[in-house]
C-alpha cells in the first residue's frame, strides 16, 4: 500500500489505526528511551504481548515511525509528522487482519 493509491476512506482508516497503535503503546508499553532539551524532545516505546509487538519513535515537531509485528511478521510500518497531532501518515507496509482488533479504539475526548 502506498499513499498514492489510497482513497480518502483508506487514508482515514490508516490514520486512525496508526493513532490507535501509538496511544495504546503509550498507555501500555515500556519506555525504551527518552530525551529532551529546550529545542527537541523524543521518545521510543515498545509494547509486546501474545505475539503482537508495537514499536514506535516520535519527536515533537519532527517525524515519527511505528512498526507492528504479529508473530514476528511486519503487518504495519508507517511514518508521518507530529505536532499537536499526527499528520502526513504514509505506510510502506500494511496487512489488514485480526491483529487490528487487539488495538482498542481511541479514548473519547471530553
Description of the molecule:
This protein is of the alpha+beta class. It has one domain. Helices cover 19% and strands 46% of the residues. The chain has one helix and six strands, in the order αββββββ. Strands 1-2-3-4-5-6 form a six-stranded antiparallel beta sheet, covered by helices on one side. The longest helix has 21 residues, at 8-28. It is globular and about 40 Å long. The model has no long low-confidence stretch (mean pLDDT 90).
List keywords for this structure.
single chain; 110 residues; alpha+beta; six-stranded antiparallel β-sheet; 46% strand; globular
Helix-strand topology string: HEEEEEE
Low-pLDDT segments, ≥5 res: none
Q: Helix segment count?
A: 1
The number of distinct structural domains comes to 1
Question: What is the radius of gyration computed over CA atoms, rounded to a whole number of angstroms?
Answer: 14 Å
Measured by DSSP, the beta-strand proportion falls in: over 45%
Largest sheet: 6 strands, antiparallel
Number of strands: 6
**Which percent range fits the helix content?**
10-25%
Mean pLDDT reading: 90
Give me the side-by-side strand order of the main sheet: 1-2-3-4-5-6
User: What's the shape?
Assistant: globular
Question: Could you give a short description of this structure?
Answer:
The chain is 19% helix and 46% strand. With 110 residues, the protein is α+β, with helices and mostly antiparallel strands.
Compile the SSE list and pairings.
Elements (H helix, E strand, L loop, with lengths): L7 H21 L1 E7 L4 E9 L2 E8 L3 E8 L2 E10 L3 E9 L16
Antiparallel strand pairs: 1-2, 2-3, 3-4, 4-5, 5-6
Amino acid at each position: 500500500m502506498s499513499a498514492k493509491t489510497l482513497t480518502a476512506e483508506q487514508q482515514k482508516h490508516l490514520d486512525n489505526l496508526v493513532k490507535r497503535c501509538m496511544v495504546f503503546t503509550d498507555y501500555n508499553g515500556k519506555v525504551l528511551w527518552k530525551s529532551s532539551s529546550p529545542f527537541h524532545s523524543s521518545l521510543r516505546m515498545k509494547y509486546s504481548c501474545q505475539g503482537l509487538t508495537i514499536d514506535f519513535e516520535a519527536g515533537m515537531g519532527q517525524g515519527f515511525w511505528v512498526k507492528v509485528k504479529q508473530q514476528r511478521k511486519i503487518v504495519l510500518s508507517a511514518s508521518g509528522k507530529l505536532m499537536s497531532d499526527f499528520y502526513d501518515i504514509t505506510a510502506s507496509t500494511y496487512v489488514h487482519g485480526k491483529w487490528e482488533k487487539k488495538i482498542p479504539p481511541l479514548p473519547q475526548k471530553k
